[in-house]
Amino acid sequence: MTDVKRLYLMQVGYIAERNTPFVCYLVQLNDGRNVLIDTGLPDVAQPPPGVTMPTMTPSKNVVEQLASIGIQPSDIQFLITTHFDGDHAGRLDAFKNAEFIVQRTHFENAQHNPRFERTKNQWSNPDLHFRMLDGDTELFPGLRVIETSGHAKGHQSVLVTLPNTGLVILTIDAVPTQDALVLDRQMRPVDDNLEELIASTRKIMDVIEREHAALVVFGHDGNQWATLKKLPEFYD
Ligand SMILES: [Zn+2]
C-alpha cells in the first residue's frame, strides 16, 4: 500500500562545464498534502572559502518551479532535508509552515561543523520546526527515509513507492552519480567519511536488489537527469 500519488523531479541549478544538475523533489500524497525534499541553492550561492564558483546556468528556483504547478510555499506540509550543504538547504526559510524532517545526528553535527556554517542562517532559524529522526523511518506508507552517512554525518536518502512506477530511490549525495554505485568507490573532497560512504552504498544496493527498485535517481548525475521526467511532468 502506498499513500503516495506523484513524484516530481525539478532541476533548480546547473553547471554546464561539469554537467552537474542541482535538484529537489516533491512528493504528493493521496490526501493532497505535499512533501518537499530539499530546497536547492540560495539566491546568491556562496562558494566555500578558496573555491571559485563555476558559471551557473540560470534556472527557476524551487519556489518558482512549485508556482508553475500551482503550489505555494504555504502548501508544503513537510520538508525532508537530506543534509545542510548549500546546494540542498539554500531556501529552507521560504517554507516556514512546513515541518522539517532531519536526522538528529546531522542536526547535532551541523551545530559545530564549519562546513554547514554557510547555511546556518537557514537551519538555525528559530521559526522553523524540526522533527529529528533516529535512523531509518517510514514517514507515510510509501515514503521512507534511510540514513546514509558518508557524504555527511546523518545524510538521508529517500525511498518513494509509487502506485504505477513502483519503488523509486532518491540517493541524493550518498551516490551522486551512476558510476559511484560501486563498493570500491573513492572519496570526493566534498565527502566526510569513506567507510560510512561505502556502508551507505551497500545499504542502497541492498534495497535496490531486495525491493526490486524500478528507478534509482542519482543526486547530481547530468547524464541521467537528461533522461528523466522533470516538472511539470511527474512519475506516478
Ligand atoms: Zn549535493
Strands, helices and their partners?
Blueprint: E1 4-15, E2 20-29, E3 34-37, H1 62-67, E4 76-80, E5 99-103, H2 104-110, H3 120-123, E6 129-133, E7 137-140, E8 143-147, E9 156-162, E10 166-172, H4 194-210, E11 215-218, H5 222-225
Parallel strand pairs: 3-4, 4-5, 5-6, 10-11
Antiparallel strand pairs: 1-2, 2-3, 7-8, 8-9, 9-10
Zinc ion (ZN) is lined by residues 85, 87-88, 173, 219-220.
Write structural notes for this entry.
By secondary structure, the protein is an alpha/beta fold. It has helices at residues 62-67, 104-110, 120-123, 194-210, 222-225, and strands at 4-15, 20-29, 34-37, 76-80, 99-103, 129-133, 137-140, 143-147, 156-162, 166-172, 215-218. A six-stranded mixed β-sheet has the order 1-2-3-4-5-6. It is globular, with a radius of gyration of 16 Å. Residues 85, 87-88, 173, 219-220 line the site of zinc ion.
Uncertain regions: pLDDT < 50 for 5+ in a row? none
Bound compounds, each kind once, are:
zinc ion
- Note the main sheet: 6 strands, mixed
The CATH architecture designation is: 4-Layer Sandwich
Walk across the major sheet and give the strand order.
1-2-3-4-5-6
Gross morphology: globular
Number of helices: 5
What is the C-alpha radius of gyration, as a whole number of Å? 16 Å
Secondary structure: helix percent: 10-25%
Order of helices and strands: EEEHEEHHEEEEEHEH
- Class by helix and strand content? alpha/beta
Number of strands: 11
Distance between the termini: 14 Å
What is the CATH first-level class name? Alpha Beta
Give the DSSP E fraction (strand runs of 2 or more residues).
25-35%
